[in-house]
Amino acid sequence: MVAAYPWQKAAQAVTDAEVRFAAVAAAVADVDGMEASRMELDRPGPSYMADTLAALGAARPNTDLVLIVGTDVAASLHTWERPEEVASRADLAVVNRPGVDRPALGPMWRRHEIEIPPLDISSTDLRARLASGRPVNFLIPRASVVFFRPDR
Question: Which of 55, 45, 49 is nearest to 86 (CA)?
């Protein structure tokens, strides 16, 4: 899911939403059970997860929702718009991130820990590799290479 207007990044330069969506779609194209969603792109205004979860719950009322975030994002959940509503609508799956400790979240969150092998990869590093002609093989899906061009 790609945020159309990531309100917490309003002061930063953010790659165009359609470009970010195309990158996500390319990344999950060959993954069974995953799809890129335009839900937040097609809804006007800022992208709030509380609104997204409400819409998903209404569209699929008998489905358990799980919000997957990295430990870095989990540490900032208290700054989100209506975090209590987010917590009441979905379980939280927290994926470890290199160099980030697990945050204490409090009792309102139904939390599951997901451990993955640490991969020290960042979009900044990927763009630098491409700009200098270094390979990105096995770091991102081949179809995604176009979205990490240095001019983006």
Answer: 49
Token look-up 């060959």 returns 30
- Full 3-state SS string of 119-138: CCCCHHHHHHHHHCCCCCCC
pLDDT of residue 74: 93
Token readout for 26 is: 């390319």
> Which is nearest to 3 in space by CA: 96, 105, 81?
81
Decide if 56 contacts 80 (C-beta within 8 A). no
Q: CA triplet 33, 36, 37: central angle to 5 degrees? A: 115
* Regions of the chain where pLDDT drops below 50: 152
CA 12/CA 124 separation, integer angstroms: 15
Taking the C-alpha atoms of residue 16 and residue 99, their distance in angstroms, rounded to an integer, is 28
124: its two tokens:
């900044």
**Per-residue pLDDT, 26:** 85
Phi, psi dihedrals of residue 49, rounded to the nearest 5°: -60, -35
